[in-house]
Amino acid sequence: xxxxxxxxxxxxxxxxxxxxxxxxxxxxxxxxxxxxxxxxxxxxxxxxxxxxxxxxxxxxxxxxxxxxxxxxxxxxxxxxxxxxxxxxxxxxxxxxxxxxxxxxxxxxxxxxxxxxxxxxxxxxxxxxxxxxxxxxxxxxxxxxxxxxxxxxxxxxxxxxxxxxxxxxxxxxxxxxxxxxxxxxxxxxxxxxxxxxxxxxxxxxxxxxxxxxxxxxxxxxxxxxxxxxxxxxxxxxxxxxxxxxxxxxxxxxxxxxxxxxxxxxxxxxxxxxxxxxxxxxxxxxxxxxxxxxxxxxxxxxxxxxxxxxxxxxxxxxxxxxxxxxxxxxxxxxxxxxx
Length: 337
Known about the structure:
alpha+beta; nine-stranded mixed sheet; three-stranded antiparallel sheet; 9 helices; globular
């Protein structure tokens, strides 16, 4: 089960104008008026202000475990020691680079993690000063997993299946986790609205999802969509890629098809398009067929990201607190390029 939440932060800005061509310069010299507007927006953002606003918001929710901070492809902070209370260390690292990034930046990525009840959460902020006019200046993505369903170190697929399969029968626990996650995302939106009063903060989605793949995908490494605006984006996989994720989805879909009252969650294809809710699929099993047309009206963001030039690439490492290198610091919001 993949818990996915998205909060958009929009800040007033100005439209970016492109450079005129030589012909346009000539026409302008002759008195012609030119329309040089683009579909991009520029906002005046300071890296310190963004980090401070988000940090104060997540601190109100009890989040104090930073993972990484990258600004314009420069790693400002990376937790390589597995510390669980290091937001202060991130603040110190940011202050040491304030002279470089204090006045502006192109792209900023800040990730933290949090354990709340039986949930393991990753909260990632991606911000840009120049972005598409229809996109927000910052996207805060929340990815979550149930701790009991996470693979243990050295656990084989067979051992994992034997341990987890009994847990898949407890539909009440899954529904409780979904509601707990939705509450967290709502609290995050409210906290951001308080700490960033100059911005418009909007919760876009907070949902539970299963991803339906074909049997051959069980032997593949998990692919990670790196564009936070894409419907299949899952920040949890950016820092904790799991080889058991696809196996778990298969187990849960199979279990829920036999449940009297399945939990309220969506089933999607790997591209993030909804095949319907679990109940929809239970009522119409043909929705799981490989040639079935996805239900574009299901998942809250089922149609976002199709026009973005996003990338799906294998994440070969984990950017977790144990010092892995899974954090992708080489690209941007792919849909903005």
